[in-house]
């Protein structure tokens, strides 16, 4: 996961549209003084986008593991 967006080797600009309530929720999280130290929306969203594939792969791994363990239990 990248740490400094200014040091990307091949940066790609991504423009997204989201609901106003999503933006308000992000602003509320940032104002709450979370210990993650987000200071702007774009950094918050960039980190969320970078984390999503990791979360999905973890979920898929856990699901496959449960299926595998379930098949052993039935055998």
The domain tally reads 1
Q: Stretches where pLDDT falls below 50 for ≥5 residues?
A: none
Structural class: mainly alpha
* Alpha carbon gap, first and last residue: 40 Å
The number of E-state strands comes to 0
C-alpha geometry: elongated
* Series of secondary-structure elements, N-terminal to C-terminal: HH
The major beta sheet can be summarized as: none
The DSSP helix count reads 2
Query: Gyration radius, to the nearest Å?
Result: 18 Å
Specify the helix fraction band.
Answer: 55-70%
Mean pLDDT across the residues is 79
Beta-strand content: under 5%
Topology:
Blueprint: H1 20-31, H2 41-74
Describe this structure in words.
- This protein has 75 residues and is mainly α.
- It has two helices and no strands.
- It has one domain.
Please outline what is shown here.
With 75 residues, the chain is mainly alpha-helical. The protein is 61% helix and 0% strand. It has helices at 20-31, 41-74.
Keywords:
single chain, 75 residues, mainly alpha, elongated
């Amino acid at each position: 996961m990248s740490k400094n967006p200014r040091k990307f080797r091949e940066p790609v600009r991504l423009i997204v549209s989201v609901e106003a309530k999503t933006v308000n929720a992000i602003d509320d999280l940032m104002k709450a003084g979370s210990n993650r130290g987000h200071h702007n929306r774009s950094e918050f969203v960039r980190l969320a986008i970078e984390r999503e594939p990791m979360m999905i792969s973890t979920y898929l791994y856990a699901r496959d593991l449960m299926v595998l363990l379930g098949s052993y239990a039935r055998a």
